[in-house]
Fold this sequence. Notes:
By secondary structure, this protein is α/β, with parallel strands linked by helices. The protein has helices at 18-34, 48-55, 63-67, 78-85, 100-117, 139-144; strands at 8-15, 38-43, 92-97, 124-131, 148-151, 154-157. Strand 5 (148-151) and strand 6 (154-157) form a beta hairpin. Helix 1 (18-34) crosses helix 2 (48-55) and helix 4 packs across helix 5 (100-117).
Amino acid sequence: MGYTNDNIKKFCNFYVSDWHLAVMLLPYINREINEGVKITTILEKDMKNNIETLIGRLNLKNEDEILNINWNDNNNNIEKYIQNNLDDKKQNLFIINGNKDYIENTNEKLFNCIKEKGVQRKFIKIVDCYEIGKDDEKMYDIIKMHDGILNTSGEYEIKKTV
């Protein structure tokens, strides 16, 4: 999996369109906000319009907090953006969306920042969001690299077999 810190859990998510991703993420993010989690998005492509359109249609308690999350693309100086958003006083949730290479490169930068900053005390969740049909890699191969799967009904741990 490329990491050994027990405080870090990686989840994968598969979606069929940008709208599907937004509909799936919003209730999950709403629950995480209720738990006091610091949420950071690292996006290859802007999602702001989709989120703003959907937020009014869904009955979510934390609309203002969700709208205050950065839903714009983060292609400029990802390392600095991660360092500025990595909170060592709260649990952290990083949502990463883009093509396979973008996700892998961003994960590497995120792990380097975590190691560099020494964030060991707080639990960190990473959700890698993959668009179905965009990457040649099979879903099974992606799933094997994660601890769990996030879908519309929540997080599910992947049972590892030896």
